[in-house]
């Protein structure tokens, strides 16, 4: 199936929520358990949270859309804590669509959305070796580690990775 990367809109919120719930459970249940992941999904991927990301200034929320389904999503925004840095907050591909280049295509578009950024940064859950490998193939390198991925008091350690972006 062919997917086209486009900017997400409010009409996509429910499809995005379903994709994130499915993908989060598929990815993180083996590490953290379905109950814990269910709580994270409820807190982080509510319709209101998704809508606020879609509408955020200095952010870009993309979907890979086949016309029938959304196969992946990506969300990045300028990082207020670091000058000239864009933070890749989410890049998830529906499990049945993985290994088709959708994640790479979404990232390629996100990479061009922040002309003032010199660095793209991402935090990857420590046990998610598959995601770390994916980001390394895109040119990211590990720069640090943290104890609390996703939210304060999450108890989920993470690797911080960065990629130098081409400057205009």
UniProtKB/TrEMBL annotation:
Keyword Translocase (UniProt): no
InterPro entries xref list: Acyl_CoA_acyltransferase, Bact_Acetyltransf, GNAT_dom
Keyword terms of this UniProt record: Acyltransferase, Transferase
Residue ranges of every copy of the N-acetyltransferase domain listed in the record: 3-166
GO MF: acyltransferase activity, transferring groups other than amino-acyl groups
Top-rank lineage group of the source organism: Bacteria
Name listed for the protein in its UniProt record: GNAT family N-acetyltransferase
Species the sequence originates in: Neorhizobium lilium
Lineage: Bacteria, Pseudomonadati, Pseudomonadota, Alphaproteobacteria, Hyphomicrobiales
């Amino acid at each position: 199936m062919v997917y086209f990367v486009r900017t997400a809109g409010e009409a996509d919120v429910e499809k995005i929520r379903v994709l994130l719930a499915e993908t989060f459970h598929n990815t993180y249940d083996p590490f953290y358990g379905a109950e814990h992941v269910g709580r994270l999904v409820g807190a982080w991927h509510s319709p209101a949270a998704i809508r606020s990301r879609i509408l955020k200034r200095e952010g870009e929320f993309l979907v890979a859309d086949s016309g029938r389904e959304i196969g992946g999503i990506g969300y990045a925004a300028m990082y207020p804590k670091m000058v000239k840095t864009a933070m890749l907050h989410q890049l998830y591909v529906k499990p049945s669509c993985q290994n088709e280049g959708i994640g790479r295509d979404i990232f390629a578009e996100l990479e061009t959305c922040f002309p003032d950024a010199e660095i793209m940064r991402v935090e990857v859950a420590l046990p998610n070796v598959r995601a770390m490998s994916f980001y390394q193939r895109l040119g990211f390198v590990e720069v640090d580690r943290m104890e609390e991925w996703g939210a304060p008091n999450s108890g989920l350690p993470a690797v911080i990775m960065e990629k130098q972006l081409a400057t205009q």
